[in-house]
Amino acid sequence: MMYFGHIAGILRDPKNEWDLIRDEHYSATTVFFGQLSILAAIPALALFIGVTQVGWSVAGEDPVRLAFSSAAGSALLFYVAIWLAVAFIGGCIYWMEKTYGGEASLDSCLVLTTVTATPLLLSGISMVIPMLWLNVLVGMAAMAYSVYLLYSGTPRIMQIPEDRAFMFSSSILTVALCTLVGMLAGSVIAWTHIVPLVYLP
Hints:
Layout: H1 2-12, H2 14-24, H3 28-39, H4 41-54, H5 68-96, H6 106-123, H7 132-157, H8 162-194
Helix pairs in contact: 1-2, 2-7, 3-6, 4-5, 5-6, 5-8, 6-7, 7-8
């Protein structure tokens, strides 16, 4: 699987690893069912464990936990949302690429999106301990590295010059941030109308 074959290289020497990933020509099926199916489960399962087994505390009070059914529904929606977000961003990259001189396939666009998101998804393990300052700190560090992966990977996967790749990466980053905001808004709606949060007494 791409995840197990390239994860260490992406963290250690991303520029060289991007070239290896490009040359291996992964399909969308391999990306989604090989790498993303595993990566998306990490934050979803961590969220479920954190809110049902550990709980979170406000101002030093007793920990608050969610009921099993409520937490399971939230985790499942989170898992699906990650898949949809990656697919949407990958589709946007494919749609925008001609503007910047890219000729990559939709498969390659999805590879770029999934690999770029890998640090963020791995950082989801921190949600096993649902402490706001810890989750934000870990998430911000992971986001910074994901941004670096985006800017280093775009010229290699899309095979375009560095100057155009920089502008393209900035456009992709804008789409990704808007997608993240959409996921947060969707979470609020889901918790209100689809999977209401049920707290344990």
